[in-house]
Specification:
The complex is a heterodimer of chains A (364) and B (391). Chain A is α/β, with parallel strands linked by helices. Chain A is built from 12 helices and 7 strands. Chain A is 34% helix and 13% strand. In chain A, the strands form 2 sheets. Chain A has a 5-stranded mixed beta sheet with strand order 1-2-5-4-3. Chain B has 391 residues and is an alpha+beta fold. Chain B contains 15 helices and 8 strands. Chain B starts with 6 loop residues before the first helix and ends with a helix. The relative contact order of chain B is 0.19. The chains are: A alpha/beta (364), B alpha+beta (391). The interface between A and B is large, with 55 and 68 residues.
């Protein structure tokens, strides 16, 4: 490894993970220390522990858990248990808002007030953590600060004060952390609207709607767009894949002739506009491009990309026979086969040369 | 608390106290307030630090956050569970995949779903790749902040290989958005395993080079040893986590010290700690952890189980009512999500506990009494990312 620095120590043996009985013991010890102030306990064996503390002994509970070995301060924040009167902010802003249930219903370990402060502390030696919750009185909206117990609570309490409007008695400096000082309101309260959604509906609603059934799609949308991706090399050489090359050839010819003509302004951007322009058509006809790799189409129609789409749009029920013969199961393959079959039929009908047909790969 | 400090720190602390007293009664010296940032190369983004100086010494320092507050906790309340991963990707943008994992694990815990073993393995691989991509850049950036320009080029060169790997799996270099409730979006691409082994070898070479050029260097050690000492009691009080905590001698790593459906228990690796708690220790621990991560990835690639990458989950995800907390050992430290669910399509409340918020909250304490050039050293070694502070 080439280590030039070797002054570190490592403790190699991994400490044991918390087992049965550890969390029960913690609850017992906490009850011994703070007595009746431990209002409620929610314990998931071998997983996690929640306790609810009486409002006026919040700091005492902090000191108790700190003394019990929970030295590591993880976080402190609050929950507003009132469901949002705006729902998930997905209403149509032009309609009157629907009536919503705003009954305050607390989570695990219960609670009597709308706001609860909760904090999590960890014992890094025993690898166990617990979440402490406390009700915030609705009329005063203030609880004791943990600043003197855990120095790290300083910023977390500032953030909670800013976002929920909960005061912490004994905190030295409850300035805003994120928002300007003159900002009004407390953004994480449920009755604080998400203003962006009030102006414009959220486009992500589409995400949770059921996907449309594939059969319900109009067939012409699927076939023309998907066919080239599933073609064999022979097919793409011969048939549908050739369309872009032809397009390019026409475009190159147009551009070149326009550049060479002295009095011409550059052509407009759209392809349609170019083809429709009479002057350019004349130039094109007078100067056929010798380097064009694509064979000249027999009928003077539009490029074959559009013609392929047109052809596939006109699917007739008879063509399903072709599919049935080959026992193709996959749905996309069926579509490709249909598309090819139709193209073949139509091409033969209009007298297209044999080498321009996607015949090789099509079911026979 | 002062008896926990090193001698130099103690002296400077006393000097700062004295300077403070002088300033308060407006005698002799005139203090100066200096703004570092919000646009400063040493702040990794837009953190502004206001320091009050007496001569060359910091009397008082205060980071000013909020230049990048995006209100993710509010936004999660109006999104569905799968949509939230897109948001949380942007918290620590250098190790994005690692941000998704604890959220998904918390949602899976509430749903009582567990990803299949192969998905767990691939999750762990991507998690460690995110860590490598993140910490490699730290090791390079460290040099720039202390005046050595070469390491950052090496860091960007080698991080590119890791980003290419992540891109080959997820399709995104920075924001993979690849983790799903119940598994992963996709399996590993063909040829990934050989490619990944080769890249891990390159990363180990990078670590050796970095150790020879930078961290083992005399100048670097002179700049970082005994600078910004954080004793373990103080580190725990402030909730420092990750390498910052281990550099203060606390042997605690969430990859090893909790039961999670990830594959860390199936590989042989170790947790590095350092007793000093100074800037050097923090950098050194990160360097060792990068090496350890490459070993984890190598072993996981060799033991990759076969099978499905997705458990059976309903197409429209509704998480049952309940509360769950899951945190993981992210590149920057402990990152966790406290999810409150009401059985809806989206969470009722999500508390995002990000590592940098706690890691930088110690700055006023640790910057007190240091000299101006050491401010940069300490901030660099604490290693924060702005998106991770402001969320």
């Amino acid at each position: 490894m080439g280590s030039t620095v070797s002054d570190a120590t490592t403790e190699t043996e991994p400490a044991a993970l918390p087992g049965d009985g550890l969390r029960e013991g913690i609850v017992d010890e906490l009850r011994r220390r703070i007595g009746e102030s431990l209002v409620d306990v929610h314990l998931v064996p071998n997983d996690d522990l929640w306790v609810r503390i009486a409002t006026d002994s919040w700091r005492a509970a902090g000191e108790a858990v700190e003394a019990m070995g929970f030295h590591y301060f993880c976080f402190l924040s609050a929950i507003d248990w009132m469901p949002s009167p705006y729902g998930r902010s997905e209403d149509d802003p032009t309609q009157p808002p629907p009536e919503r249930d705003t009954v305050v219903r607390p989570g695990v370990t219960g609670g009597e007030t709308r706001f609860q402060v909760f904090a999590r502390v960890t014992d890094t030696r025993r690898h166990v953590a617990l979440t402490l919750k406390v009700d915030v009185p609705d009329d005063v909206m203030a609880i004791e600060s943990w600043f003197t117990v855990y120095a790290g609570a300083n910023w977390h309490e500032r953030e909670t004060h800013e976002m929920f409007g909960i005061s912490f008695v004994g905190h030295p400096d409850l300035r805003n952390m994120y928002l300007p000082t003159e900002f009004e309101g407390h953004p994480l309260r449920k009755d604080f609207p998400l203003l962006a959604r009030m102006i414009k509906p959220w486009p992500g609603i589409v995400d949770v709607e059921p996907m449309p059934v594939e059969d319900a799609l109009p067939q012409d949308e699927v076939v023309g767009a998907q066919a080239p991706a599933d073609l064999t090399p022979e097919q793409s050489d011969a048939g549908l894949g050739a369309a872009p090359a032809e397009d390019r050839a026409v475009e190159e010819a147009l551009t070149r002739s326009v550049e060479e003509a002295p009095d011409h302004t550059p052509p407009p951007a759209g392809d349609d506009a170019r083809v429709d322009s009479g002057d350019q058509q004349d130039l094109l006809e007078g100067r056929p491009d010798p380097s064009s790799p694509a064979p000249a189409p027999p009928e003077p129609g539009p490029p074959s990309a559009t013609s392929a789409a047109d052809e596939t749009a006109r699917v007739e029920p008879d063509d399903e026979l072709v599919v049935g013969e080959d026992d193709i199961v996959d749905e996309t393959e069926v579509r490709v086969a249909e598309g090819n079959a139709v193209t073949e039929d139509e091409a033969t009908a209009t007298g297209r040369p044999a080498d321009d047909q996607p015949g090789e790969g099509a079911p026979t | 608390m002062t008896d926990l400090l090193s001698e130099r720190q103690q002296l400077s602390y006393i000097a700062a106290q004295a300077a403070d007293a002088r300033l308060n009664v407006e005698l002799e010296t005139e203090g100066m307030t200096l703004n570092i940032g919000p646009q400063h190369p040493a702040t990794h983004g837009t953190l502004r630090i206001i320091v009050r100086l007496d001569g060359e010494q910091v009397v008082w320092a205060e980071p000013s956050c909020g230049y990048m507050h995006r209100g993710y906790e509010k936004l999660t309340e109006v999104r569905t569970y799968p949509q939230v991963t897109t948001l949380v990707n942007r918290i620590d943008w250098l190790g994005s995949f690692a941000n998704e994992v604890p959220f998904i694990l918390a949602a899976e815990k509430l749903m009582e779903v567990e990803a299949p073993p192969r998905a767990q393995h691939i999750r762990t691989i991507l998690f460690e790749l995110s860590r490598i991509a993140n910490v490699v850049l730290f090791l390079g950036d460290l040099g720039v902040q202390l005046g050595a320009v070469t390491p950052v080029f090496m860091a960007f060169r080698d991080r590119e290989h890791v980003l290419n790997l992540i891109e080959s799996v997820t399709g995104g270099r920075f924001h993979p958005n690849f983790d799903r409730i119940g598994g992963l979006k996709d399996d590993l691409p063909k040829g990934f395993i050989d490619e990944c082994h080769a890249v891990m070898k390159k990363i180990r070479t990078f670590c050796d080079e970095n150790e020879d050029l930078l961290i083992g260097g005399e100048i670097f050690q002179a700049r970082t040893r005994d600078v910004g000492v954080i004793p373990r009691e103080v580190a725990l009080q402030y909730g420092l986590s990750g390498a910052n905590l281990r550099a203060s001698g606390v042997d605690w790593d969430l990859r090893r010290d909790q039961v999670l459906p990830l594959a860390y228990d199936k590989v042989d690796w170790k947790v590095w700690t350092h007793p000093d708690g100074d800037s050097f220790a923090r950098c050194w621990v990160r360097l060792q952890e990068t090496r350890e991560s490459t070993k984890i990835v190598d072993q996981l690639l060799d033991t990759l189980p076969s099978g499905s990458i997705m458990a059976k989950v309903p197409r429209i995800i509704k998480v049952p009512e309940g509360e769950a907390w899951v945190s993981t050992e992210n590149p920057l430290g402990e990152m966790g999500y406290y999810i409150v669910s009401r059985g809806d399509l989206g969470p009722f409340r999500v508390k995002i506990r990000s590592a940098s918020f706690n890691n930088i909250s110690i700055a006023p304490w640790v910057l007190r009494g240091v000299y101006v050039p050491d401010i940069i050293t300490i901030l660099a070694s604490l290693y924060f990312i702005l998106g991770d502070i402001d969320r």
